[in-house]
Amino acid sequence: MANKEFDVVVIGAGPGGYIAAIRAAQLGFSVACVEKWTNPTGKMVLGGTCLNVGCIPSKALLASSEEFEKVGHHLADHGITTSDVKIDISKMLARKQGIVEKRTGGIEFLFRKNKITWLKGHGKFVGKTDAGVQIEVSPTQDGEVETVTARNVIIATGSKARHLPGMPVDNKLISDNEGALSFDTVPKKLGVIGAGVIGLELGSVWRRLGAEVTVLEAMPEFLAAADAGVAKEAAKQFKKQGLDIHVGVKVDEVKTGKNNVTIHYTDKDGKANTLEVDRLIVSVGRVPNTDNLGLEAIGLAADQRGFIPVDDHCKTSVPNVYAIGDVVRGPMLAHKAEDEGVLVAEVIAGQKPHIDYNCIPWVIYTSPEIAWVGKTEQQLKAEGREFKPGQFPFAVNGRALGMGSSDGFVKVLADAKTDEILGVHVIGLNASDLIAEAVVAMEFKAASEDIGRICHPHPSLSEVMREAALDVEKRALNK
Ligand code: FAD
Ligand code: NAI
Question: Is there an atom of ligand 1 within 6 Å of 48 CB?
């Protein structure tokens, strides 16, 4: 087969890669994207971790389990009586899969619309010539190995779950994110190793559906990345819901039986403990996909942790080779990967894009949701930066009360002298949407007074953002 040439070849079609491919096509380049993912039905699909076994399926299950919990526990307050509430797990999983397929199919449509060539297989660097970088594509299913030439390459190979020695993941008794999104029954007792984002989100799903969930976390502090005030409130809420979280734990040994898993661990006081569960989720972070990529063939090397070193514009040390998303430094978040995809396509086009990594929001989709942007109170203290905090609870917001979800608060941290917003932290209903206002404000270097002076709709949850901003100068109106 003749060697095909493209202006841009993207390796990986997760949110980083597929967005980079679309933006590059919009800018007039000839674009190909190499992607090898096959779903459990044997179909090759686009969308990567995020669409297939990450953001999208997890949010579908969070929504289903939230509805179930609402009907079972929260409707009585509204005067609505229900009885004999049941959940059909296979239907719930089919709904989740339907949403996944709608989205992955949507990306196939976008590839066709933007005339992006999908090279279906595993991509690997095999060399470099004056014409560009040579990438060998080994088909995942039928077809022949082919080599394409790329004038520019965007590596967007993403990440996979980190596994631990002595805890073999079979996605039946011991699962990573893939298995934990597809349990065919609700475990009676579920163990989770790692109280990070996946542990809390998927632990919440199965708890709401009836599992007794115990989470074992190695770090002495709960949710150390979040603002300490938010983490404290979250720990209180999760405890009230029945999530049994143990911090400062050392997992000593994990043994699997026929239908159960036994975990021997040492608790924070040095006491030996045993936990017996039906299923165990291991959610202890993710590792970048750089193996079998042939980086050495073009003179590139991953760092000690497997990440590809890049500069602020996602340029690697090899000219015209870029890397984005989970395979490079920075938070492992879909929207960060997407923004880097757009940035690189625009850099290739000679534009001057920029990402302010301090303005990338974080969201944990528990109930209440947790979201933040910018610096936490503990980070500002460690930096010695003088700041003024403002905080306002959802408990006195009419809309939150009406919606029956008034736990949590918004906290705004502003510079003590200039009033510039340095960080915003939300724990409460729809925090994932509320945080967008704070991101816009921080991107525009707004002051807390700016949010305080802007008209917000009434009654709405967004009024809590405004009141927290006003509280920076201790002039909240409903406090
Ligand atoms: P990926 O999505 O991992 O995609 C990489 C793609 O590259 C894959 O499709 C892979 O098959 C392909 N690939 C790899 N190597 C090759 C090769 N050599 N040849 C061909 N193809 C290759 N983030 C959020 O922002 N919000 C969330 O709510 C959220 N929820 C999550 C829930 C779970 C359970 C998990 C696991 C993750 C979640 N994330 C979330 C993180 C998010 O999924 C990742 O940050 C995001 O997918 C990274 O995008 P990416 O494009 O860098 O890589
Ligand atoms: P994580 O990094 O969020 O959390 C892992 C947790 O496991 C940490 O608290 C860590 O201290 C703990 N841990 C590590 N080793 C341990 C051990 N041996 N014993 C006990 N605890 C141990 O990683 P997680 O939850 O696996 O998620 C991976 C990534 O996926 C996240 O960092 C995030 O970037 C992304 N993600 C994002 C979501 C979102 O944006 N809502 C949702 C889910 C995942």
Answer: yes
| Alpha helix positions (H), 209-255 | 228-241
Pocket test for ligand 2, best of 56, 167, 249, 283 (most atoms within 8 A of CB): 283
Q: 288 C-alpha to center of ligand 1: Å?
A: 10
Mean pLDDT over each residue of the chain, to the nearest integer: 97
pLDDT digits (tens, 9 = 90+) for 218-265: 999 999 999 999 999 999 999 999 999 999 999 999 999 999 999 999
Amino acid 141: pLDDT: 87
Question: With 70 as the cut, is the pLDDT of residue 1 above it?
Answer: no
Residue 123 has pLDDT above 70, yes or no: yes
Tokens of 164: 């631990």
Contact 374, 227 (CB under 8 A): no
Q: Is the pLDDT of residue 280 over 50?
A: yes
DSSP code of residue 426: E
Pocket of ligand 2 (CB under 6 A): 164, 193-199, 201, 216-219, 251, 283-286, 331-333, 363-365
Residue 447: the pLDDT is 98
What are the structure tokens assigned to 379, written together?
């980070």
Please give the full DSSP string across 86-150, using - where no structure is assigned: ---HHHHHHHHHHHHHHHHHHHHHHHHHTT-EEEEEEEEEEEEETTEEEEEEEESSSS--EEEEE
Q: Which numbered atom of ligand 1 lies nearest the CA of 202?
A: 34
CB atoms near residue 433 (< 10 Å)? 14
Rounded CA-CA distance 256/412 in Å is 47
Torsion sign over Cα 463, 59, 169, 241: positive
Angle between helix 89-113 and 55-69 (nearest 10)? 150
Q: What whole-number distance in Å separates Cα of residue 236 and Cα of residue 91?
A: 32
Is the CB of residue 45 less than 8 Å from the CB of residue 38? yes
Closest-CA residue to 230 (of 64, 436, 439, 409): 409
Report which of 129, 132, 122 is spatially closest to residue 6, judged by C-alpha positions: 132
pTM: 0.97
